[in-house]
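Note to self: keep these together.
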Amino acid sequence: MASEAQLAANRRNAQLSTGPSSSTGKAVSRFNNLRTGIYAKVTVIPGEDASELEQLISDYHLQFQPANPEQRYLVDSLVHDEWLLRRYRKVEASLWEFALSNADTQSPGEAYAGQLKVFNSLHRRIASVQRSYNNTLRQLHQIQADRDAAAESATGQPHAATPPPQLASVPHSPELAAPPAPPSRPVPENPALRL
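Structure:
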């Protein structure tokens, strides 16, 4: 165990450490928080926009409104998976650009064949993340449906489902208005179709 003198010295030394001051040092230290395993977070790598990630997180939390840590985990997992899918789409576009820029390549088919191992690896990762996204979304919907059913049975009234957020306000325009629905007519019953 550290003595009081050592603790005081550590506190004084900590006051002297202010982190990197140069732009190069700050750029390098920006990635200090990247970790693997259970500490991994959704990361923004060079070429990605941190504000896009923040908007994505906000949109998902607004849409699903997680009510407890389990639901927050599932929503965060959805954000992570979508962010990875966006990244992988950019990687695929870059891979096509690289493969087609090769002087020996005459067609997209030849470009694909020339980079087949890389394309296949990328497509496996995309498929894996899409499965993860779909499974997580299914699980979140089930948890929220169970929550709504429990609230309905407890109160005897249907639980008001959270409406999806409005993405954009579109001004009303007669050109964009849906055509009026045709008047409904009763359908005559066919006795041959009765069971």
